[in-house]
Every structure is written in structure tokens, then in C-alpha cells.
């Protein structure tokens, strides 16, 4: 920049300093204290490597692989690695997407397109399936038939699944593992149900796909069961590289057992005056950045490296589970197979789980509240990663302290006005005025801040227990509406 020539432009150092200041308001992405959203290998060099690879390819466009053959090469390398890791036979193919949701969307789209003869297509999913499949149903006009899971193990029920499959079913889905409870559905049984009916079967291994294969190799210690493309009847599988492959955000892989199964998510259009549009994914322009960063990280860590990282994360998860189970008043839901924990109240211990979350946040640990759903009670979600290994006691100690503080504070009682309001609101006709009333009753400050802390233009209260209690009391549909309204308030320039 020429000084003075461009008076409203910001200098390099200045703009980066501003960014650093903004980032200070975020949940920490490293160190293992943010137990959702982020994945930390604990390997110091990975960030630098990813950043440099990202910079080297961020301007390249995957829209046309003939113009940017480097991206084609790197994508084929990553897909090949995923196929080898996840039981693909020769002939298996895959596609790199922007994330787990896009992979799941494309699996549903391909299944729908593979059955154009079905007028009213549906998919059969365990009710614990990731919300991405609800989104697919919403976007692609596919009915989502949710089948309740076993109320104790939270695993899919193959018999109930078989009963739910009918002539409109174009896809059966199972998770390996589920996000909410971290348990693996009985994939061989579900795939058999699908296979017998000639229906496709997708395994959502978005979160477990880069961990479970390594744990299975340690099978002597009782590793998880078969879940991948080698299971008869499994036709597709999704695995996120930006989760347990510890890659920078924006990369997932969707595998199909053969190219014929994949065809339906490809899109081509020659019906415009521009270039013939050819898209394997929902995106058209595709940055080479996340792809190159993932390619570099996967090659650098290597198979042995991932085996070590998977073992570290699993050991940490087991220790944290044991530690939390020993805390009076808490229990872990189900028998988690991987590296995720759902922590619920044990009986009625006289304290509030959402207060425990607040108390953990006050101590610098961030967990994710999960609301009651069918047989699953309110709980706190913990994604454990390799960086937590060796520091399990710190988290368990924080949980103990948070529970003691929550006990001392007593249970949260929902404000009577708020309870009444929640009881009468109709999610389908909710007005801006009513939403403002809810915010006011919840004591939420939606002011745009005074600029002193640019990272938080809308100030959430330090303690969320009251709001979470209200949201837990709302019907799922009302909760969706309230949170969508809230999001609309956040995204205002
Ligand atoms: C994370 C996740 C997804 C969605 O992935 P995003 O990358 O967040 O879009 C889908 N399924 C499961 C099981 C997941 O854990």
C-alpha cells in the first residue's frame, strides 16, 4: 500500500492485529479445553504445515480439474487413502466435500437419483442420526423416517428398522459412531436389512471414520465392531478429515462402493451460454486450500501417526469416562465405543446439569449441552481428542469442582413468566414481538455492544443455565424457531 494513496485501506500488520484481537474472544481451539467443534492432535507442527499448504493452493479452483491437475491428484490421493483405511474394494470411488453435512447430503441425493422410479422417496434412519440427514430431507424433498433407538444402549434397532423399510425407501443409514452418544449402530445388521430389500446403506462415519479403523487394529483390547465398506450391503460411507484426521476445517470424504452408485450426486448443465457446468458436489468453485492442507497433514502424520493419535484419544476418553462416572450424581449415557461422551445426571442428585456446564465454562472448559430427545435425557457432550491424553485428571477435577458448585447453587428454576410464555407460543406463527418478549423474559442483552470488545457484538450472559432450561422446556419445533430467530439477530452487519 502506498501511504496516503488509499486512506481507507488498513495496513498489513494492523489488519492482522485486529484479527488477533477478534480471535481472543473465541473459544480456544487448542489445548483440549473446548470439548466440541474443534479437534487438537497436540502436534505443534500441523497448524503451520496446514497453513502453508493452504496458502500454496488457496487460489486454485477445483471447479475444473483439467485446469488444476494438482487438485485432482491430491483429491484422488486422499480418496484413495480413505478407501484403503475404510475397507473399500478395488473399484470403490469417492468425492471430497466441504464437510460432513455436504457428504451426508450427497449420499442422500445420490440415493434419491438412483431411484427416480420412486415418486415419494424416503430414507430410514435411527432417531439418533446426525441432523444433516434431516437437512437432506428438507432440501431434497425426501421423507425422513426416524426409528427410535434402544433406550439403554442408544444403538439403532435392526428389527424396527426392517419394519420401517418400505417400497419408498431409497436409503438406510447407520452411524459409526453417533455424534450425540458416541455409540456405533449395529452396521452389519442394518446393512443386511437394507441389502435384503435391495436398498442402499450409508454409514455416517463422519466423526469416527479416522479413529475406529485404528482402534480395530488394536482389537486384542476389544476394539469396535465392523462398520466400514467391507461390510456386505454397505454402499456408501462419509468420513470428515476436519475431525479426527486433524485437518484444517472444510474437508470431508464421501465414499461409494462403485462409480454407478456415485453418479446421482454429479450435476451437469449445458443449458446456459457459459461453460458446461460440471459439479461433483454442491459447490461449484472449490478452493484448493482446504484440500491441499488436508493432503499435506494426512501425508505428514501417516498411518502410524494416526494409530498413535487414535489410541491417545481413546485412552483419554476411557479415563475421563471412568473419572466422571465416579463423580456422585453423574453418569455416562450408553457404552460409548469411540472418543465421545454424553454425561447425564444420575437420578435426581439435586443439582442442574446446565449449571455444571456454566461452572465448567467459568473454569475455562467448554462442553456442549444436548437437550432431551426421545429416550435420551439432557446431557453434556464431550468430544475428546489426542491432546487430552495425559491431562485427563485436569478435566475430571474441573468436573468435580463444577458439580460441587452446582450443588451449592441448587437446581435452576424456570422463571414463571417464561414458563407460561413458552407454553403458549406457537412455533408456526411466532412473531418478532413475541420473540422479543422471550428475550426480555430471559434477560438477554441483544444490544450491539459498546465496541470495547469487538469479538462479542452481542453479549451472551456468562451463565446460560437459565436459557438452556427454557430451551429444554420448549418443544423441539419451538426450540428450532427460537434459535433460528436468535441466529437472525446475530447475523446483522
Ligand atoms: C460432524 C458430523 C456430521 C456433520 O459434519 P459437519 O462437518 O459438521 O458438517 C455428520 N455426522 C456426524 C456423525 C458428525 O459427527
UniProtKB/TrEMBL annotation:
GO MF entries: transaminase activity
Keyword Ribonucleoprotein: no
Keywords: Aminotransferase, Lyase, Pyridoxal phosphate, Transferase
The protein's required cofactors: pyridoxal 5'-phosphate
Matches recorded under Pfam families: Pyridoxal_deC
Record flagged with keyword Repeat: no
Family: Belongs to the group II decarboxylase family. Sphingosine-1-phosphate lyase subfamily.
Descriptive protein name: Aminotransferase class V-fold PLP-dependent enzyme
